[in-house]
Amino acid sequence: xxxxxxxKRIAIFGSTGSIGTQALDVIRANSNDLQVxxxxxxxxxxxxxxxxxxxLPNAVVIGDEKKYENVKNAxxxxxxxxxxxEESLEEVASFDTYEVMIAAIVGFAGLKxxxxxxxxxxxxxxxxxxxxxxxxxxxMQKAIENRAPIIPVDSEHSAIFQCLVGESRNPIERxxxxxxGGPFFGKKPNFLVNxxxxxxxQHPNWSMGAKITIDSATLMNKGLEMIEAKWLFNLEPxxxxxxxxxxxxxxxxxxxxDGSIKAQMGLPDMKLPxxxxxxxxxxxxxxxxxxxxxxxxxxNFDEPDYxxxxxxxxxxxxxxxxxxxPCVLNAANEVAVWAFLKNRIGxxxxxxxxxxxxxxxxxxxxPTLQEYFDSDGEARNFAATLMKL
Length: 389
Ligand code: NAD
Ligand code: MG
Prior knowledge:
The chain has helices spanning 18-29, 45-55, 68-74, 86-93, 111-119, 130-145, 155-164, 189-192, 197-200, 210-218, 220-233, 271-279, 310-321, 325-341, 347-360, 369-386; strands at 8-13, 34-41, 59-62, 81-84, 100-103, 123-126, 150-152, 172-179, 240-244, 250-256, 261-265. By secondary structure, the protein is of the alpha/beta class. Helix 6 runs parallel beside helix 11, helix 10 crosses helix 14 and helix 15 (347-360) crosses helix 16. Magnesium ion binds at residues 154-156, 225.
């Protein structure tokens, strides 16, 4: 990018999280080309204030209304507009003053503001995979109608997106999503039954927010990513394969109709897919550490253990069924992971809660947006009751 072109104005939804803070690192390193327009956070008011004082955006949102006064006072000497509450997320998402939304809120909470940005035709740098898991058909349809490009930030989907550049006329035969396997690769249920939150929060290759770290340990994350891939790349379930690759060097692959496979590789660092999404179609020069083949004489590949990590099978079932099943799977999983993080249920109970909730909530083949919200609510209530929360 050249310094003569106007700066891209960026809205980071979820700026205090793992993706959000790394997105700010990328913007800080490219301040000639990128500028912060909006920052939002749910409860970490102190970090939001610090970020706002450094980047001086047009507006910030603090979700937790109890924190509003503190943020307002801390930014009183600046021109930063301060908003609070869930609805203001949608309000600022509709602002005309930015071009790119980094959708980095975790979970279902990201859906409404992201949909707003899509309706406004913004470029969406999408980290929040749950948005596509819950309502992928509606989000993608609206993206087409409003010419809103959705550029994946999730590393696997960024890899596939990068492999597809220059291939628009060539159909995909299949994609191969790589999975590290998480901290419990090779373990069996008799071990997993005793796993505690602090152990599950230790991911071997990536440092991420708590929810996705647990999802990586249960392999639900890979299941959500299969559903995310279906919508992003318009694939049938049988075209989406998962392979365990413990080193996380190959970020994913595409196989074309001639059998040729393209892979995107690099050291595991989320700043790379973030900056690719912000720079697309250009690549931004950086000084991140480079991959050295000689330090990795072996890259391993393995079959996922579907018998032990049953969440992956449940996600595939939801992927194949379609309708509101993925939405229900996601809602039950969010509540169950939350309960696990609070030490209220065991590691294997997460799967049991998701499975029972999927059986209980009635199937809707072609839900409206309202029906997705209703399915989410019903599934959350059912899962919470099941766990006696
Ligand atoms: P995180 O928990 O570190 O951060 C979440 C952000 O969302 C925070 O800024 C928080 O304030 C905000 N938030 C949380 N609940 C909210 C709510 N109810 N309303 C509004 N804002 C809320 O999460 P993360 O690891 O940065 O992940 C963010 C998203 O990116 C997730 O969907 C995750 O699956 C996806 N993702 C993350 C990574 C990663 O490396 N962290 C990689 C791939 C995809
Ligand atoms: Mg991923």
